[in-house]
Amino acid sequence: MELYQLRTFVTVAEEMHLTKASMRLFLSPPAVSAHIKALEEELSVRLFDRTPKGMELTEEGHHLKAQAEKVLSSANDFLNHAKLSGQELIGEFTLGYCSSGSLLRIPELVLEMASHHPNLMLNLEQCLSLKLVDALRKRDIDAGFYFGNDNPAEVELVKLKTMNLVIAAPEKWRQQIESAKLKDLTGYPWIWTSEECSFRKVADAAITIRRLNLSHAIVVNEEATSKGLIQAGVGLALMLEDEARDAEKAGQLVIWDKESLKIDLSLAWLKGRKSDPSIKALKALARNIWQSPPCGGGELTSLGSPIERPLVVPEKELVGAID
């Protein structure tokens, strides 16, 4: 029995499909099938039932998957200890990001990583917050920035800062917007986001409590495009306050200033990788960066401890934000 066979077994169990598993493993479907067949023959156990919809774990397969995950986790810990003993991080590390580099202080992080770990190549990959868990599980990224007030089950979060979400509107609507109440804004077209966006999740909670009905003009998940559509007069949208303030100063939009919603910015990685030397290095560098003012000055923020339970926007706070 080889580790690569166990890795293939767990991946097929997660994807429930040979072709999808082969894409994750960078193997051909026949090779993945051969791994599973060899493992089943060695264990004298049928791990999967082959169905028209894909691969379904048998009862024995379910039990063995948990054991295989423990073996792979132990092997990963062994490798991590070996890396630590060398005192030098070597290889590649992919970090997912979901907003502008300056807001996430990525330039500072890149410089610090290059200074402290010159042989660790940092790759940046755009990744929506609510796609982050899947990207981490598939090893598309090693860690990532996460916007959200919840704590996904498989993930360890380290809170960096609580940020404000504000409603931004076209500059040419300034007169109407500045005197409007939230109920007045429901009549305007809105630039919305897909259900995968964490901003949408926070907004939906507020809308549900108030029983509002917003008019959707367009759905977009990219912040720069959303801002451009606001400028063009397409509609209103939620924006992070720091970025919205800069855009307002530049005469690009107007902020509805009555209230705001809260959303947490965190760093995230799989719980099973918390002992990974590269994760520890990222966490240490992030602590130093976020405990210091941004390069251009600004608020001091601290790196909190891992979130132990889900965080939600209090109902009272949501109601206050939309009165």
Coarse morphology: globular
Which class best fits the helix and strand makeup?
Answer: alpha/beta
Unreliable segments of 5+ consecutive residues:
296-323
What is the count of β-strands? 10
Main sheet, how many strands, which sense, barrel?
6 strands, mixed
Strand order of the largest sheet: 4-3-5-10-6-9
CATH class category label of the largest domain: Alpha Beta
Report on this model:
By secondary structure, the chain is of the alpha/beta class. It has 14 helices and 10 strands. It has 3 domains: 84 residues, Winged helix-like DNA-binding domain superfamily/Winged helix DNA-binding domain (Arc Repressor Mutant, subunit A); 99 residues, Periplasmic binding protein-like II (D-Maltodextrin-Binding Protein, domain 2, 3-Layer(aba) Sandwich); 108 residues, D-Maltodextrin-Binding Protein, domain 2, CATH 3.40.190.10. α2 packs across α3 and α10 packs across α14. The longest helix is centred in the N-terminal third of the chain and has 28 residues. The chain is globular, with a radius of gyration of 23 Å. The termini are far apart. 29% of the residues are buried. The C terminus is likely disordered.
